[in-house]
Amino acid sequence: MGVRRETMVNALLLAGLLAVPLWALWADEPFTITLATRVAILALAGVGLNLALGTGGLVSFGHAVFFGIGGYAMGILAFHAQNYTPLIEAFSIPGTRSMPVIWAVAVLASALAALAIGALSLRTSGVYFIMITLAFGQMFYYFTISWPAYGGEDGMSIYLRNNFPGVNTLVPFNFFAISYTLLAAVLLLVGRLMRAPFGLALSAARQNETRLRAVGIDPYRLRLTAFTLSGAITGLSGALYADLNRFVSPSMFSWQTSGEIMIFVILGGVGRLFGPVAGAALFILLEHFLGGISEYWHIFLGALLLGVVLFARGGLIGLLAGREVAHD
Amino acid sequence: MRAKSLFLATAVASALALAAAPGARAEGIKVGMITTLSGGGASLGVDVRDGFMLAVKMSGRDDIEVVIEDDQRKPDIAVQLADKMIQSDRVDLLTGIIWSNLALAVVPAAVAQGKFYLSPNAGPSQLAGAGCNPLHFNVAWQNDDLPAAAGAYLAAEGFDNTLLLAPNYPAGHDMVNGFKRTFTGGINGEIFTKLGQKDYAAEIARIRASGADSVFFFLPGGMGISFLKQYADSGVDIPIFGPAFSFDQGILQAVGAAALGVRNTSQWNKDIDNPANKAFVEAFQAEYGRLPSLYASQGYDTANLMISAMEKADVSDTDAFRAALEEADFDSVRGKFSFAPNHFPVQDIYVREVIKEGDVFTNRIVGVAATDFVNAYVDQCKM
Amino acid sequence: MSPILVIEQILNGLQSGVMLFLMAAGLTLIFGVMGLINLAHGALYMIGAFAAAAVAGATGSFLLGLAAALAASAAAGALIEASVLRRLYGRDHLDQVLATFALILILSEGTRWLFGSFPLYLDIPDWLSGPVLLPGGIRYPLYRLAIIGVGLLVALGLFALISRTRIGIRIRAGEADREMIGALGVNISVLYTLVFALGAALAGLAGALIGAIQSVQVGMGEPVMILAFVVIVIGGIGSIRGALVGALLVGLTDTLGRIFLPMLFGLFMEPTAATTTGSALASMSIYILMAAVLLVKPTGLYGSAG
Fold it and tell me: What ipTM goes with this model?
C-alpha cells in the first residue's frame, strides 16, 4: 500500500510544481514563477546527489563541484559568445548561446570531473569519503576565486538568458517549462534506472557488499558509474541555475552549496525518487517566508531542520507516504 | 533598541503595503533595499540600512516605502531578491548592496529592466567604465578611489619603498592597482593572501625582513582586525597605511589600541565641519546610541540624494528623475559632492588618523589626500 | 632568503598547527568515542571567543576571560550533547551532518542576537604582548610562543589523561568497543557528556586564545572547523596522536606554502603572475595534501578503520 501511496504523493508533487506557476501566470505574479523555477532546478541538483547518496550510500559533501562546473560551463561559453572572443584561440572555436549545446558541455564536463574525483575518492569510505569529497570542493572553490580569467570572486554576469530553439527564454514561464521538462525527464530516467539491474545492484552494494562480490559484481566500478552519473545530473542543474540567475560565481562551489543540496535530499527523504523535489520546494518556501519574518530567521530554519532529523526520519515523503522504502 | 523599533515599523509598513494590491500607490517612491544583515558581514549592511532609514525618517516624508531584505552575502540570493523586488514588490529603485561581486550580479540586470540603482557602497570598475549605465549611480566611491588617494599621499610624504598587501581576489587587485596608479615612489613587493585569512604571522615576518619603508594594505572586515592586532604585537615599526575600510567605526573598537596613530584615507569622517554632518552625527547617535560609521554616512547620503530628486521629479518620469539625480542637489555630509559623467562621485578624499576619545576609538582628519578626486574609469564610460 | 626568516616561518607554522590541534583533538575524541561527526565544533570555538571577549571586557582580566571561555564552551557543549546530539549516536553520518549543520545556524545567529552584529574586542594582556629576542637574533611575539607552550601542555595533558587515568581507560574502552563499557558498569551517558564537554572546552580555549590576535565575530568558527576536519582526516579519525601529527603537518604546509610558493614561482614567472599563481596554489595546498594522504592511506596516517 505504501508504494502506491508514495506514487500518489509523487504525482501530486509534480502536478503541484506545475500548477503553481500556471496560477502565477494567470494572476500575473512573475516572481512566483521564478521561485518555482528555482525549486525545479535545485530539485534536479538533489536528484543527482540522491542517486549517489540515497541509492548508492555515497555521502558526497562535494557535489557543489559539479553544480559549479555546470554553472561555469554556461558562464564561459556564453561569456565568449557575448564578447565575440574565441573559446579556444588555437582552433578558433567560438562560444555559444544555445542552451542544448551548453547543457551537453555541462553534462560532459561534470561527468568527467565526477569520474576523476570518484575514481580517487571511492578508494576511501565512510567519514573519509565525506571529507575527501569536501576537500575536492574546497580546491575548486579556492581555484575559481583566485583564477582571474573569468572574474575570480566577482564571477561573471551574462546579460541575456541563452537561447533555446523556438522558445523565448526571457519569458519566465517558458524558462520554467524548460527546467520542469528536464526535471521530469531526468526523474523518469532515474526512476527506470533504479528498477533496472544497475539500480538494484547499486542498492545491494549499499546494503551488503560481500554478497555482491559473491555474485561477481565489482562494487567499485558500480559505484563509480553511479557517482559519474550523479555528478552529470547535478552539473546539468548547475547550468540551468546559472541561466536562471544569468550569473555565475565561485559561491556555487562553496561547501555551503554542497550542504544545501544535501539538505534538499534529506528534507525530502533520502533514497526516495521524489525526495529532492519535496525537499527543495520546502527549503525555498522556508527561505522565502522566514526571511521576511525576522532578521534572525536562520535560527528558525536551524530549529526546523533539527526537528526533521530528530522526529521525521524519512523526510517529507516519508511523512506523507509512510516508511515503505527502508533505508538504514 | 530604537533602531529595532524603527526597522520594525518599516517592516510592518512594507508588509502592509505588500498585502494591499500592488500598483495601488499613486505617488511617492518604493525602494528595494538588498543588503547584508546576517552572518559575518552584517555590521556593514546594518549601518547602511540605519543611515538610510534615518535620512528617510528625518525628511518627514510619508511617501517613501522601503522593502528591506537580507542577501546573506550570497550573489545568487541577491539576484533572487532583486527579481522578487522588481517582479513582485514592483519597486522603483534599488539600493543597499555592500559587496562588489553582489553588485555585479544584480546591477546590470536591474538597470536593464528600467530600475534605478543607487549604490551606497560597492563601486566595481566594471560598472564605472565600459559597463556604466544612465540608471546606475554610486554615492560612495569607485573601488580604486581611496587607495589611489593613499598612493598620492604616500608619494607626497616621500615614501619610496612600499610593500603592498591585499587578499587574492578582484577587489584586492583593484585596490593594489589603484594605489600603483598614483604612487610615484618605488614598490618593494606585493603580497596576495588568501581571502578570509585571519593569521598574518607569515606575512608579517616577510614584512619585517623586507626592508620596506612603508606598507600599504587593504584587508577589509575581520581580516583587517586580525592583521592590525598581530602587526602591533609583532613590534615591527614600519609605518602602515590603508583605505578607510579597516579603520571604520564599526571595527575600530574591536581592534583597540593596535590601530592608534595609523593613517588611512576616507571621503568622510565625523569631524568634517558642515551643518549637514553635524546634524547627521547627532541624530544618528540619538537614534541608535552609537557613533555613525563610514557606511552609515553613505547610506544617509544615498537616501538624501534620492529625496532631493523626488522633490524635483516623479520617479515614474525616468528621464526627469535621472536628471534630478545627476544634479546631486542635496547637502552631503561630506560637504562638496557632485557626479562625474559616469555617475560616480567627485569629492575630496581626506587623510585620517586613528585616535582615542575618552573610551572610544575613532578617527580625526589630519590632512587632504586629494581634492575633487575623479575616478580613473570615467573616460571608458560611454552613455 | 635568510635562515632567520625560515626559522620564524617554521615557528609560525608550529603555532598555527598547535591551535589546530586543540580543535582537532576534541573533534577526533568525539568521533572516536561516540562515532559522531560534529560540524558545530566551530560554533563552540566561536562561543569560547565571545565569552572570553565579554568577560575580559567587563573585568579587564585576560585569565578570567580564558576561564569563562572554558566554562561557557564546556557548558554549551554539554547542553547540546544532552539535548540533541545524544539522540544521534546510533544514526548514520548523514543525519549527524544535517543536525550539526542546523546547530551551526542556531548557535551563530543566536550569538549575533545576543552580542550584536559588530565584532568584539579582545586583546593580548600586557604581560604577554610584544616580541622577545630568541637565540640567533629572531624577534618573535611572546604571545605566539605562549600559545605554542599552552598547546603542547594541553597535548601532554591529553595523552596523560587517556593513558593514565580511569576516565582515559573508559574512553579507550569506548573507542574499542562501545558495548563493553556498558558491561563494565560505566554510566555511558555521563561519560559521553563528559567527553563532549571536554572536546568543547578545548575548542573554546582555542577560540579565546586565537580571538586575542584575530577578530572575534560571528562566523569565525567555520573556516577553522573545516581545517580541523582536514587535520583529523589526515591523522586518522579517532587518533589523538594522528590529530597532533596532522595538525602540525597542516599548520606547516599552510604557512610555508603561503610564503614560499609565490617565491618559487617567482623564479620563472614575472612577479605579479607569480604571486597570484603561487597564492592560488597555496590556498589549495592543504586540500591537495589531504587528498594525497588519503590516496596513499585511505584511513589516514594513524587510522585503523573507516
Answer: 0.85
